[in-house]
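HUMAN: Mind sharing a backbone?

ASSISTANT:
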Amino acid sequence: MAISIQIDIAKVFCNSIFKYVRDVNNADILSKTFGLLAEMMKCAPYHVFDAAFECNIFTSQLSSPSSDWLLSGALARMLFAAYEGNGDCSSLTSSVLDFTTQVLRKGADADDIISPLIVFSIKYIMINHVNWKHKECSRWKTTLRVFELVKSCLQVKPFSSKLGGIIWEILLYDSSVHGVLWSILSVLTRLLHDSYRSNYHGLKDIEDIQLVLCNGLDIIYHILSNLPEDLLPNPPLVTMVLSSSLKPFSFITALISLMSFHSFGMQVAAARAFSALCFIAYKAQPQLMENASFTSDVSEIRRLESNISCILDEDDKNNDCLVVAVFNLLTSAARYQPAFLISLIEQSTKSTDHNASTNDRDNRVLVTSKSNARLVDQILDYIDRSIELMNRSPLVLLSILDLLKALWESGIRFLFILEKLRSSVTFWDNLSRCIRATLDISPIDNIDAIDEKFSLRYHCQGKIFEIMSHELFLQGKLLTETSNTVQDDPKGQKEHKSGPCRISVVLKWFDNAILADLVSNLSSNAYKKELHHAKVAACLCIIHLITKLSTGDTGSLSFSFMKKIQIISTKLLQHHAFLALLSQYSLHGYSGEQELNNLVLNDLYYLIRGELEGRQISSGPFQELLSFLLGFRIFEHNPLEQLQNTYLMANDKFLFDVEHIHDELGVDLWTDSDKRSKEVAKKMLDIMSKANLMKYYADAKLSALMSFLKFLSVYKGANFYRFLTKTWTYLMEAYQ
């Protein structure tokens, strides 16, 4: 008689951890065990979590092996012994970090249970790994894994507030974590600097160093750009990055140095961190007046100006992300650190005038004219290419226009820059042509004809209208000041010497036909249909997963998502409409609770699929169940769970976090034998992506329309206010 024996490998591995961790000689096999569990977590997360919970790897219980004993005692001792005895702990450390990362990604909702493992990995491993012994070229790989775990922790924040709160408290207030983070960044900055002057480091080692630096800067950028508004007093991390007495050099010095390396990823990461630093320094200045000052070192300003000019001079179409990051940095400086931006402009002026003076050495006089600023000339060069950028890379054009808007918002403060821009022969003409170009290439509100570039073009259009509004306001202010100056001192000089402004080129361009086209084009809105389509697709996927899970097949669904589906399933089966359908089906001779449930779920699935294909469900219990499912909105992005990003350049709003949903479902790991599940999930994700695109498109048009109406109110004067108010009320009702 054949005997069938089933062995739960996940449970065997989980139980073996407590066995191996008792003997420090088992470091290698323990490393392999954690590595295998990490891989299994990707394929069958719910099953691995179930085994781990049963074996008490995470939960703390006084009478059994607990996470407190495992993490603070045995595992810590094992990691310490690995580098003391073997001279290398990178293998075990990497395996533990990989396992922790997968636990975090697949089980964030179990934050009460997994928190000890996450905290142990951040506090113990992150702080101590820099002092452990590693094989050649493996140290920075371990550090890279530590930083990747921290980045994963920060990404989990919107979906797990309790665990996220613990993580953020550590990152903001734990001085030991700050010390290690800065030690790694400063050491690697110096190593990278030395490597460019010698061949001491191999190419692969340099690549690892650059990756670690990029991830470290990304961590700081993410933290600084997502600090709560009311976070007072300033956390120690903020104090550290703003301190001018930080050793061996300040954070801003490190950023300027890293922006000089010809490494695309490094320069982008440094520019983004620099942008956030400008904002944080502005917010923290009242509390940190002594330390929150930007560099006054002329050599550093000269170096940064030279780096920025070199980046903007490069004619590389693959360099767009870096150009955007640089213009965002200049925009952040214009809004939050104007004195710093003026120093950069003055430095670029000196560089230009110095080059121009080499042909006139006999006079031995260097006349500095701010109108010769190289950075301003480069901005004008980009505006001259605005139509090309509008077609090829509207994101670059948008970043430039955002900088221009920041300059015009400040008005008099940057008047010496604005004079050169606003008096340019081609400046206003190029901007007006961008408005016309957006109208000429705008598609019908059809998802198949729209891509992200169309949305960005409307954002560009809106920025141009805002710039024009500020220009009209500035003209009035300058005219008033000039009149007052003449009245006070008729023989005196004008306080502001305003060059000829050619915005009249734009104003003449507006006629009734153009206005009608603009209003008609900007006021159309068709994304609501796509939103409903995506919600119905989500309901279809949920019903399919409920049916799938009823057979015990959890597949690659994350532990967090499994719990959500189980809750929905329980509530759905208890819904009065579902119970009414069960009664109806039982009258037709069907019996057995599971059979009846499956029949109702199967019919509900095909009716929802029909709704997705355009065949509406008639009123009745099935329609009630669809409405019930639509109310859960488990796939929809919840703004209340989003980090309250106080930094200007926050991510755009979206309806569905497609990347997160994709990871929760584990779609890539679904086998070909389950083609139906894969098709349902991929179709849902595709529809969600299109809904996001249409939402972004509609928001961009609404933003452009708002800017256009504000421009008209400035242009037409106070009499236009009543019309603007009525129009605005109508539009807001239409977009609800």
Notes: Confidence is low (pLDDT under 50) at residues 60-67, 287-293, 356-371, 492-499. Residues 527-700 form one domain. The CA atoms of residues 278 and 337 lie 6 Å apart. Residues 675-716 form the longest helix (42 residues).
